[in-house]
Amino acid sequence: MKIKTFASAAALFLASFTAQAAVLTFDDIAGQYGYGTPGPSMSLTANSLSYTEQGYTLTLYTPNSYAYNTHIGDVTYDQSFNWHDGDLNAYGAYVKLTRNDGAAFDLSSFDYSLFYGSILTISAPGYSDITIGNSGHYAFTYAGVSEVTFSGPGNYGSIDNLVLADAATAEVPEPGSIALLLAGLGLAGAVRRRKA
C-alpha cells in the first residue's frame, strides 16, 4: 500500500469524527400560528411563543406586547421561520435560539428572505453583532455559543435551513481506533522501507 493512499484514508478516518450537524428546515410550520393558538412543535406562555426542532428551540419574546398578538409562521413563507408581534415587531420582539439541553453549539449558516425590507440583527455572546438587509444565504463562524438572538425593529423576514452543530459533544476517536490507525501507518512505513 502506498503511503499517500494510506495517509488519505487516515485523513478521511479522522475527519469522520466531527460534531453532529443539524439543519432546521421548519417543515412543521405550514401556516400562521399564534394569536393564542400554537401550532405543531410549539408552546405558548404569557409573553413568549416557542418552536422546537431537532433539539433546538427558537423562542419569540414579546416584552412590550401580549403573546396572543404575535405569530410564528405566515402563509407568505410556509415552512420557514418568521415572526411578528402584531405591529411588524415595532414592540421590540426578538427571537432567541438555544439548545434544549443548554449545551454550546455552532452556527454555520442560514437562508434569509426579506419581506418588509428591514434589517435583521444577529447577536451572540463573544461576537460582534451582524446586520443583514438583503435576502440571501449567509455563512457564520459562531462557535461554542450558548444562544443566538435575532432582532430588528420593523423586521418581518424569514429564516430557513439553519445549519447548527453541537459544539459540546463533538465525536472523538476512541483510543483503540487511534491505536489501530497508528499501527497501520507503522506497517505501511515498514513495507515501504523493505521495498526500498
TrEMBL record:
Keywords: Signal
Start and end residues of each Ice-binding protein C-terminal domain: 172-195
Key word Flavoprotein present: no
Pfam families, per database record: PEP-CTERM
Record-linked InterPro entries: Ice-binding_C (IPR013424)
Taxonomy, superkingdom: Bacteria
Signal peptide start and end residues: 1-21
NCBIfam families in the cross-refs: PEP_CTERM
Protein name: PEP-CTERM sorting domain-containing protein
Gene source species: Massilia suwonensis
